[in-house]
Predict the structure.
Amino acid sequence: MMHRAITLTLVCILTATAPILASAAKTSPSPEDSLDTPETTTVPSPEELERAGQVEVSEPPSEASGKPQTLQAYYFRYRQSITVRAGIEEKFNDIGSPGSILSVLYWFPRKDLRGIEGGADLQSDGSGTIHIASRNVVGKGRWRGFHKLGGGVRIVPSDQMVTFLRLKNWQLRMSGGVEYSISDPYTLRLDIDGTLSSERMAALLTLGVAWNW
């Protein structure tokens, strides 16, 4: 009986301590645990590859590449000017005896921006002419054309105030020409004028310089 009681007691003690001994026991590592887990490699998507192929390399400025920059187009912005010009006058009723001419012109804008130009001419025979015309400029570049239509009156010193009463002194004037902006605000100008009155017809060829503003 004593022997059975001792055996039963040992069995009970071993049964009670078995979980503690089992949890304290160290497990031997598995060979698979000692191997490093390889990192997952990310494969780029087709969209990412397409975006990478669309990347453009920016070009350096034209100064770095040695190429000259495109010059900005010229724009004529002036609407007023004073012109000094000189030239010759050829009278068709006295061909072969051209006279010289010196004149001053003033161009100013109208409300419709077409412009009015008035001036005074001094001829080599001592007479003069006062004239006014509508002036239209064709183009706004460095080279420009223009045309005018107007009238004038010859001033003959010997006639004094009667000058304005004589029909033969009144003129119909038609003009055209070209001008070139050499350096703002200065312009070279070439004019061809035709004058018609009851007694004479003449043509004028002049070259002048204009100051614009």
